[in-house]
Design a protein that fits this description.
The structure holds two protein chains of two kinds.
Chain A (H helix, E strand, L loop, with lengths): L1 H19 L4 H20 L26 H32 L11
Helix pairs in contact in A: 1-2, 2-3
Chain B lengths: L1 H22 L4 H27 L5 E7 L4 E6 L2 H24 L6 H20 L3 H19 L6 H32 L4 H5 L2 H5 L4 H15 L8 H4 L5 H7 L4 H11 L1 H4 L3 H23 L4 H21 L3 H32 L10 H4 L1 H15 L5 H16 L5 H4 L1 H24 L16 H19 L1 H4 L1 H12 L16 H25 L13 H24 L4 H20 L16 H20 L4 H21 L3 H22 L14 H29 L8 H12 L4 H9 L1 H23 L18 H4 L1 H24 L7 H27 L4 H21 L11 E3 L5 E3 L2 H33 L16
Antiparallel strand pairs in B: 1-2, 3-4
The chains are: A mainly alpha, B mainly alpha.
């Protein structure tokens, strides 16, 4: 299981990095999204891979860490998902504005010399 | 502890006064009263501190700042610091009084007094500092405020240039000083001044001694305008005269002297000290005095004379002799008094006649007799005429020069001759200053009719000149105790016997003094014709132009050199920058991990679930596909990206993270729609167009290698991390306390809205800012001409095609709304919460866009996103603030359960209200982004180019 997920993180991250170095703005958006999946999974995997034990307590007591998934990476990732969404939206609009202003979709605002 | 109060007040008062003065209205009188009162009060504080010190205590305040790094805010007052602080605040007070009459009401007066007071505070902070770093901080503050003061007349080019030059030289030296202080602190192991002063032998024998010495002296010599850094001082004369009188007599330029004297016990006493400082001091002394003779501007003459006197003090300090040290401190005080009064006299002449040019001035003795007498006495003190303070310290200087000349080196040998020559020059320029302006025939050729200044403008000069005379006649009775305390605090038990008397018998120094007076008079007589001929420039030294050299260095550094470096090392191409970032990150990670060996841990692996493996085979394929298709098939890339997102979402479900899965799913939906909305504005791209050349292939291959390396690295680190046991973190605490203290069973939600509520508040603020930015950016959106037209897919009425789905979507809205509310309410105990609910509700709106089209929704939508956002933020902040009314820290939550009978128990934690705020903001922000994006298509259709500058929707209006 560990190997499968590590490979998944690597593939997502690698695809994202490849797209980051591409010249078109749209490629960058897709790349950033892929990279954020990869990073989110990485943070998530800090809590390892418990099955069937979500961090939802029985009312009235303190939770035993052995019975529940680690809630901390989960809340970190939840925050990261929302912020990632905001970044994607912002970047999309910057992309549109740059396209309108420069007439192209190259990241430098002009085609390479 | 009144002692500590005096110290803190002495440093703080001027800064407070500066702030108040800044806010006062333009009226010379008010600011002057304030500044005068502050300066006087500061002086009182210093004197009180001095008196408690004279009573045997040493006032000291220590406020820890970063004690782990040895950084404390320390103020301490010993005799030397007290003497300097008295000069700074005392002369500061006189300057304020003088400036009250000098400054024109047309100048921005509040700024003037604010800067002056702030400068005074910086000087006091520096002289009272008990910590090296803090000393450098105040040192740089004095550079900064002197820059502002010199450039006070911003509309005058000379003032701006002079200010910039002063700042470049003194602040640059300050950087060297900072480095030197760090080295010194490293040698000693402490930045505390008292500790440093007690470790003289350690410092002098340390291998880094020479490094520290050179760096610190660079700071001191630039500040004190020593050759070859002297050129900034004459250009700083573009400042208003009160500023010149203050900066160049008692304060700014004396800071370097102060520092050298302060560190004298630990840095001096070596050959290096003598051989660096003695030649510099000697050259500065002679050069300054020589150039001063040939200045036609009274202030320039005084400026060069200041340079010369500073050289004299540096020379005295360099001699490594205790008696010379006494002479240096004494001369510092004397110079401050007579030079300040001379500057003020020059200012009075400038003020009352309209010129400072000695060639034009003549015979002012007739019209301004009082000022003439005062200037005469002060200039005589500068020349070293007996019965004035300058004479006594100059005699000490001669004595020291003679003592030093018994040493075998040539450098020591020439000191008496050089001292006599410099004194001859000093007499000459003093004579020129007085004779040129006040004697000779009265002239009518002046911009204004000269007359005596207002009486109170003369008072500061009178006080200073009176001091010169009293000290000159009765030195031991007046300045004696202060000088003694000051010198003792530097030399300690090694303080030598010295005699502060006017008459020491007919000895060699007296002969030298008489020789200087006679020689100076003779020289003035010989040069008289040349000087009055009005020739600019200094004979024999016309090639020596510090300003031009400075300008050339500046041009080289800031233009040619910078350009070359930028051309060779810089790139403005984003791709290259990102490539570098990725490569550097990869290298940094590799280099950090390699020494430890990056290998798998020893944790037993969990068996691979085939479902997960298949899922991730699909997810990975989707990711690679998205990366491959993003250039030519954008739609396919968006779909494939969504595929990866869904697999991620399923992974969250699989491994016990329902909250994450829910949020991820909703975010996926919204992101996909937003991306689709953006797609149509991009240029068309055809697969066949120019992708085949060799260079492009090479570039792609290189990027592929980088990407594979980065991905491999990520996978390796992940694997290494996953195969090790996770450290015991704070998660246990969260699990244990979620119900007991947060009142919720959904621990993730409790963490978000309660334990880490402050983070969440920051996060929703960011989300709100992003939404507003999107809105603002799209207000001025200009689509490219080729994307303005209606796309093929929108020709005709889309509603006819999607009739059944559209009706279904519309009917779904209330159901979605109900689900959103349900998610919100149960969020504290079960998966859900404000984020999920907000996104859910905005998906409801989004579906309406799909069903009805942008125009239909805009006609029917009754949502005001800005209001939702502000209400959300207010709710979140309000819930947090409410806790403070109950005496709890910000964002502490309160909870209870309400029993709703058959409906079950409703958790009523105050955190739920916070979550409601999160919900409102997330909903408002998402809908605002959505509306703004969707509106573009409506706008571009409605208006043919040029597009109208209208708001994208009725979003902003209430």
């Amino acid at each position: 299981m560990e190997l499968a997920l590590a490979l998944a993180i690597g593939i997502l991250g690698g695809s994202g990095v490849w797209l980051l170095m591409r010249p078109r703005t749209f490629q960058l958006i897709i790349g950033l999204s892929l990279l954020s999946y990869s990073v989110n999974l990485f943070i998530f995997s800090m809590g390892r891979f418990p099955i069937g034990s979500p961090p939802i307590l029985e009312p009235g007591g303190a939770g035993d860490p052995a019975n529940y998934a680690d809630p901390l990476p989960q809340s970190l990732v939840l925050t990261a998902i929302v912020i990632g969404f905001a970044t994607t939206a912002l970047f999309l609009v910057v992309m549109m504005a740059a396209r309108g202003l420069t007439g192209g979709d190259h990241v430098d605002g002009r085609p390479p010399r | 502890m009144p002692d500590t109060f005096y110290l803190i007040a002495a440093v703080l008062l001027p800064f407070l006064g500066a702030m108040v003065a800044m806010m006062l209205p333009q009226s010379a009188r008010l600011e002057a009263w304030l500044a005068g009162a502050v300066a006087l009060l500061t002086l009182v504080m210093v004197v009180l501190g001095y008196s408690s010190m004279a009573a045997g205590r040493m006032p000291r305040v220590e406020i820890p700042w970063v004690p782990e790094l040895g950084l404390s805010f320390v103020l301490r007052m010993d005799g030397f610091a007290a003497a300097f602080a008295m000069m700074v605040s005392g002369i500061g007070f006189l300057i304020v009084l003088y400036a009250r009459y000098y400054m024109s009401p047309d100048d921005p007066i509040p700024r003037f007094f604010a800067f002056l007071l702030a400068f005074m505070g910086s000087m006091l902070g520096m002289v009272l500092s008990g910590n090296l770093i803090q000393l450098v901080f105040f040192w740089e503050l004095t550079s900064l405020f002197s820059f502002l003061l010199i450039g006070y007349w911003q509309n005058v080019a000379a003032a701006r240039d002079g200010a910039r030059m002063a700042l470049t030289v003194t602040a640059g030296g300050g950087l060297a000083l900072f480095a030197g202080m760090l080295v010194l602190g490293h040698i000693v192991g402490s930045y505390d001044l008292d500790v440093v002063l007690a470790s003289g032998d350690l410092i002098r024998n340390h291998p880094l001694y020479h490094v520290a010495l050179v760096l610190i002296l660079l700071g001191a010599l630039t500040k004190s305008a020593q050759f070859p850094f002297h050129f900034w001082l004459p250009h700083a004369m573009a400042a208003p005269t009160p500023v010149s009188a203050y900066l160049h007599s008692a304060t700014l330029v004396k800071a370097g002297i102060f520092l050298m004297a302060r560190l004298w016990p630990v840095l001096a006493g070596t050959d290096a000290w003598f051989w660096i400082l003695c030649p510099i001091g000697l050259i500065t002394l002679l050069l300054g005095a020589y150039v001063a003779i040939f200045q036609h501007d009274m202030k320039s003459l005084l400026a060069y004379s200041t340079i010369s006197h500073l050289g004299l003090i540096t020379l005295l300090l360099s001699l490594n002799s205790d008696l010379a040290m006494v002479a240096a401190v004494f001369h510092t005080m004397n110079h401050a008094t007579f030079k300040a009064s001379l500057f003020m006299a020059a200012g009075i002449i400038d003020h009352e006649t309209g010129t400072r040019d000695i060639r034009r001035l003549s015979g002012l003795n007739e019209t301004m007799p009082f000022t003439a007498r005062l200037a005469l006495v002060a200039a005589a003190a500068m020349a070293g005429v007996p019965l004035l303070n300058g004479f006594i310290s100059k005699e000490m200087f001669f004595t020291e020069a003679l003592t030093a000349s018994t040493m075998p080196t040539f450098m020591h040998g020439i000191l008496p001759i050089a001292a006599t020559i410099a004194s001859i020059f000093a007499v000459t320029y003093s004579l020129r200053f007085i004779h040129g302006a006040f004697f000779g025939p009265a002239t009518d050729d002046l911009p204004k009719r000269p007359h005596e200044p207002p009486q109170f403008m003369r008072v500061p000069v009178e006080v200073l000149v009176f001091t010169c005379m009293v000290v000159g006649i009765l030195p031991a009775a007046t300045i004696g105790p202060l000088l003694d305390v000051a010198v003792r605090s530097i030399l300690g038990d090694a303080t030598p016997e010295y005699s502060l008397a006017v008459w020491h018998g007919f000895n060699l120094p007296l002969v030298m003094s008489l020789l200087a007076l006679a020689g100076g008079a003779l020289m003035y007589r010989l040069l008289y014709r040349h000087l009055n001929a009005g020739i600019d420039g200094t004979p024999l030294l016309s090639g020596l132009d510090g300003r031009r050299a400075f300008d050339q260095v500046m041009v080289f550094l800031s233009w040619r050199f910078a350009r070359t470096v930028e051309r060779l090392m810089g790139t403005d191409r984003l791709q290259m920058q990102l490539r570098l970032v990725v490569c550097i990150a990869f290298l940094a990670a590799t280099l950090t991990l390699l020494p430890h060996g990056l290998r798998a841990g020893d944790l037993r692996l969990t068996p691979v679930d085939p479902v997960v493996a298949i899922l991730w085979a699909i997810g990975g394929a989707c990711a690679i596909g998205a990366a491959y298709q993003a250039k030519y098939h954008r739609l396919a890339a968006v779909v494939l990206l969504g595929g990866t997102g869904l697999i991620t979402c399923l992974t969250f479900v699989w491994f016990s993270a329902p909250d994450l899965a829910l949020t991820q799913l909703l975010v996926e939906v919204v992101t996909a729609v937003l991306l689709l909305l953006g797609l149509r504005w991009l240029p068309r791209r055809f697969e066949s167009a120019g992708s085949g050349d060799l260079l492009a292939r090479f570039r792609r291959l290189r990027d592929l290698v980088i990407a594979v390396a980065a991905g491999g690295g990520l996978a390796a680190i992940s694997y290494a991390m996953m195969t090790r046991a996770s450290p015991e973190g704070i998660s246990r605490q969260f699990l244990a306390r979620a119900y007991a203290e947060g009142g919720g069973t959904n621990v993730v939600n409790v963490i978000l809205v309660d334990f880490r509520g402050f983070d969440t508040m920051g996060e929703i603020t960011v989300l709100g800012i992003v939404a507003l930015t999107v809105f603002a950016l799209l207000r001025r959106f200009r689509p490219a001409p080729e994307s303005v037209g209606v796309p093929d897919q929108q020709q005709g009425d889309a509603r006819d095609w999607l009739l059944v789905p559209a009706v279904t979507m519309r009917m779904l809205f209330p159901i979605i709304f109900a689900v959103a509310v349900y998610l919100l309410l149960r969020g504290h105990d079960l998966p859900g919460g404000g984020f999920a609910a907000g996104l859910m509700l905005s998906i409801g709106i989004l579906l309406q866009y799909m069903a009805g089209g942008a125009r239909w929704v805009e006609d029917h939508l009754r949502v005001l996103p800005l209001r939702w956002m502000s209400v959300g933020l207010l709710l979140a902040v309000g819930t947090g603030t409410a806790a403070t009314f109950f005496g709890k820290p910000f964002l502490t939550s309160y909870f209870a359960y309400a029993n709703l009978g058959p409906l079950g128990k409703l958790p009523l934690a105050s955190a739920v209200i916070f979550d409601l705020g999160v919900f409102a903001l997330v909903f408002g922000a998402t809908v605002l982004i959505l509306i703004a994006l969707a509106h573009q298509s409506v706008r571009s259709q409605r208006a043919a180019p040029p597009p109208p500058p209208e708001a994208p929707a009725r979003v902003g209006e209430d």
